[in-house]
Amino acid sequence: MSAGKSNVKGAIYALLAMAIYATHDAVVKHLGAQYSAIQIVFFAALLSFPLLSVILLNDKREGHLRPIHPWWVTGRAVATVINGVTAFYAFGHLPLAQVYPILFATPLFITVLSIPVLGERVGWHRWAAVVIGLIGVLIVVRPGQAELTLGHVAALVSALLGAFAAISVRKIGSDERSVVLLLSPLLGNVLAMGAALPLVWVPLQLVDLGFMAIVALFGLTAAFLSILSYRAGEAAIVAPMQYSQILWAVLFGWVLFDERPDALTLIGAAVVIASGIYILFREATANASQNTPVLETRGRVEMVSTPRSSLLQRALNLTGRSTSR
């Protein structure tokens, strides 16, 4: 297959993955009207755990589940747990078209964190993109002009912690087994959310349990499609497809939740997206970056039901090699 056709195939897989992710988030928003984010996260993690565990534990390489870098692994797990709760809270309490532009700031935070964590040198082009992107976030949030809610704070915290989780993988991913990096946040979600569940428990309707199963299923399905997209196409082509989620956010918000995004929200989203795409473009340019932390951070913000696709791909590749021997 030619490179052009492969890139088209990769882009189609990525667009499909983002459509499923957006549907996943719309279901979370629907559930968030009745249930706490803690309860939603707990059941999403619990229902994701069996399938993901079977996949990961098929890794037959010799080794153990003790982390080589325990503090980094623990910090990443804690960040991912809080990231999932804050993202689910934001989806439940803000219009979808406001949540996504804030979460799209994750590549900007990754760029900033790559300096102290990875020793990355960031030039003025990418610094300018970071500043412009953060201005876009301010346009969406509008502090002082619109009410700054806990949902906005939660979305910002989610973006920042998602960046930390992603940059942690870049820091220790070559040393740690993928099963350790993927299972530790999942276990953390089940244990932490399970401990907090009695404080927020609302009797669960059977149909809503089905919706929570959809959250788990769609998160894993979209992660697998993201893997296929990066296998088929170049990262510089596939990665920008994540921003198509804003189109689904506008559509779902309009049709399902009677949300009408105003002009400033759309302008702010456009500014954040443009800055993120520019950073991806700079990192794809030869010799522009040594580590390319954003370009190699595959998939969207890692949550309980949306595992890091790069780690899942690595686990599947190892499983395939071990079973073929």
If you compute it from the alpha carbons, what radius of gyration comes out, rounded to the nearest whole angstrom?
19 Å
Class derived from helix and strand content: mainly alpha
N/C terminus separation: 28 Å
Beta content comes to under 5%
Q: Percent range for helical residues?
A: over 70%
**SSE order:** HHHHHHHHHHHHH
The whole-number mean of residue pLDDT values reads 84
Largest sheet: none
Number of helices: 13
| Count of separate structural domains | 1
Number of strands: 0
Shape: globular
Low-confidence stretches: none
List keywords for this structure.
single chain, 325 residues, mainly alpha, 13 helices, 74% helix
Could you give the topology of this structure?
Elements: H1 3-32, H2 37-56, H3 70-93, H4 96-103, H5 106-118, H6 124-141, H7 150-172, H8 178-200, H9 206-232, H10 235-238, H11 245-257, H12 263-284, H13 309-323
Helix pairs in contact: 1-3, 1-9, 1-11, 2-3, 2-8, 2-9, 3-7, 3-8, 4-7, 4-11, 4-12, 5-6, 5-7, 6-12, 8-13, 9-13
Can you walk through the features of this model?
By secondary structure, this protein is mostly helical. It has one domain. It is built from 13 helices and no strands. The protein has helices at residues 3-32, 37-56, 70-93, 96-103, 106-118, 124-141, 150-172, 178-200, 206-232, 235-238, 245-257, 263-284, 309-323. It is globular and about 50 Å long.
